[in-house]
DNA sequence: TTGTACGCGTTATCAG
DNA sequence: CTGATAACGCGTACAA
């Protein structure tokens, strides 16, 4: 007597036990109008058996039959999500669920381009949201051809326009612009900007840098650029370099974490912050209020996840291309 | 002339265009032994058409037919994942993929117990990994009955033993024990511990507290407990209370973030850290090295994600209950 | 209420 | 040797 591994109950199991057809079971469990005149006694019996068997409909089989797609695939960047992104993702997930879609996060994808696209397409999602580092024109084309909407996170909306690729971006240039303007308003004319070397972050860093440069150009200020790794040693190296070439007046540290590392290195070097050097981060995470002096930052306010979800769903159902930029930057001045 | 929404190509489309049966297409595309003797010419034609059509097999249809389950559902806690958890999750995802399974993250689940279990069961995963705040005995039973393995994150292994529920836990008691012992080694006998009020964090906080208490009991030290929210105000409140009742000698701040908030509040109050008060966080994230003075912490080293993945898969294929605790704590002493 | 075709792909069986 | 037929997995929905 070998114990068999449990198997999920099927509609057929229920039909057999209840002595009715599978059609009847389906009608009863779905409260379908076509089965409206099935006697209450039968209905009760079917329901009782379904319950007893722990029956749960097979989502795959159902969607295979109905042809419905309710999956939205979210393919991560390979980086740690900050509280901002996490918070948005939660709201977005919930909002999508309310609209009848299921968002699944698909992490640690090792492929890109057509290979990645094929693995996503196999799941027949209604849409895929992926970092632009995973997308290639051929991959996007494959998905679109299969009726799967594609959202590039970070892709350039101008370049995407007309290709069918939708975009969902954080406007990094705008963040840099806000930070740069805030530093310039304080009278600084000699600015330094940090750009992460880590590839997925680098693109964003360059966008932010561009914004600072734009702000600087408005008043004829200068901008120095430094590559930085996410490590105390790299921060110390930059501060040491400033010791040689002269300290900048204002520093934009890419984000709060990089800025936090820089702040530590500046304090270690005995630099007066903000007396000698003004410092800004971005994202406005709680970290800003842990550091002393407290860190100035650029808060990124997001449009309601519900609204974004609605527009994503509209794009899915209408098969149209949309370009969403749910974030807007606001400087927050603190002690640095 | 209405443009029809693109539809994914099916095996039937290919068969029609190639003038062969769907069986032939299937054999060719899968390099099945049964189709080994299909002439190269036909094979090439089928492959070319599949390629041209952008054909990708329908994963659902395939698994429906073969009965295979390769999905592992990971249901988040509703909190921001730190770098530690994120890093583990990435490695774990990759390792599972190498073993033929796909890990999907399912966030912002609004249900718990049987309701949640039903929504997971509908996806027919091979296993579900969920926070114990989402699991109830009835829910677990439903899943097990359907042949779906269940891993409770944070569930008590002792309580689970024999019920079929597997566990995957971080040993919070051990973290508190390590922190407590480190503080006591420095000679502190008047300890304070912070416990977050936020429900999902509270459980972990209580586990860590228990560990500190255990350490304190070994040498007869005292332990004060303070509830804390994740806000600068709450930290300031606690420090103010210490002003009234007297400062503790050593503080365990639950984790680095809560400790960082406390550090800021202590410095604001003019308290000498670590001269007057020693402070420890936990998790050892980069934040520790941004703060000045740099924060002592408890690093949590995880067993290799590959090894954990192997054991999870073994549990799935053999249908056995396992209890994994892939983390071990190591104190890291810095300036605080 | 039931029989059954269908959605998509796999595979054992059978025929030219 | 080459390849088609058909049953099947699970649930839905139309015709009877």
Automatic annotation (TrEMBL), chains A, B:
InterPro entries attached to this UniProt entry: HTH_LacI, LacI/GalR-like_sensor, Lambda_DNA-bd_dom_sf, Peripla_BP_I
Domain (HTH lacI-type) ranges: 9-66
The organism's place on the tree of life at top rank: Bacteria
One Pfam family this sequence matches: Peripla_BP_3
SUPFAM superfamilies xrefs: lambda repressor-like DNA-binding domains, Periplasmic binding protein-like I
Keywords: DNA-binding, Transcription, Transcription regulation
Gene Ontology molecular-function annotations: DNA binding
Protein name: LacI family DNA-binding transcriptional regulator
